[in-house]
Write a structure and sequence with these properties.
This protein is α/β, with parallel strands linked by helices. Helix content is 23%, strand content 27%. The chain starts with a strand and ends in an 8-residue tail after the last helix. It holds the Pfam family TrkA_N.
């Protein structure tokens, strides 16, 4: 998979290193000469250019990319890069970094963003996830379809503990994608029984989150 990363700072280089280890083809783009540190990520391609300029993106052959990551420290730049990647080059997946939480509402499909990653929101979500049992925690927002990646740890007294996945009437517009059980990561099967302490990851429409939380809560049968 070919991935272009706009922004070769610490965040962009870190992402590049991870993706290179997983066998992907990486192009790092930055307009600051001081950011071009080929020795830090020697296996990546490097391009000294302004990612907000069409001529630069033409040179980067963005139409060949499967994913574009807008990872600069400037939200305005990340929005412009996302919009150009999606509308001018038809990049299938665009991921954008949100630096200022006040700007998060802008990072949606109108600006070409498929996935918006806000570090403050993600950090707070991970803190909540670490201390919350039985509460729905929003981990990540997907722009298309107004869907979120959410997590809930099934409490010991949950009504659905012991119920098979295939026997649960899940709300519309929700999908159970992963069960984390101890050190194991399970792909849900309709024959799998839910267990207390399971971390359940869903992709769910925001409008269904409350319904999903009620379904998985201790209160379900007695509500």
């Amino acid at each position: 998979m070919r991935v272009a990363i706009a922004g070769a700072g610490a965040v962009g280089r870190s992402i590049a290193g991870e993706l290179l280890e997983n066998g992907h083809e990486i192009l790092l783009i930055d307009k600051a000469p001081t950011a071009i540190s080929v020795e830090r990520v020697p296996l990546a391609e490097w391009l000294l250019a302004d990612a907000c300029e069409i001529t630069s993106l033409d040179e980067a052959a963005l139409q060949r990319c499967n994913v574009v990551i807008a990872a600069t420290g400037d939200d305005k730049v990340n929005l412009v890069v996302s919009l150009l990647a999606k509308t001018e080059y038809g990049v299938p997946r665009v991921v954008a970094r949100v630096n200022n939480p006040k700007n998060e509402w802008l990072f949606n499909e109108s600006w070409g963003v498929d996935v918006a990653v806000s570090t403050p929101r993600l950090m707070s979500a991970l803190v909540e996830e670490a201390v919350s049992v039985g509460d729905l925690v929003r981990l990540l927002r997907f722009s298309h379809g107004d869907a979120n990646l959410v997590e809930l740890t099934l409490p010991p007294e949950a009504a659905l503990a012991g119920t098979r996945v295939g026997d649960v009437e899940w709300p519309q517009d929700t999908s159970l994608v992963t069960i984390i059980r101890g050190t194991r990561v399970l792909t849900p099967n309709k024959e799998d029984a839910l267990e207390a302490g399971d971390e359940l990851l869903f992709v769910a429409a925001q409008s269904r989150e409350e319904q999903l939380e009620d379904l998985l809560s201790v209160r379900h049968e007695g509500a």
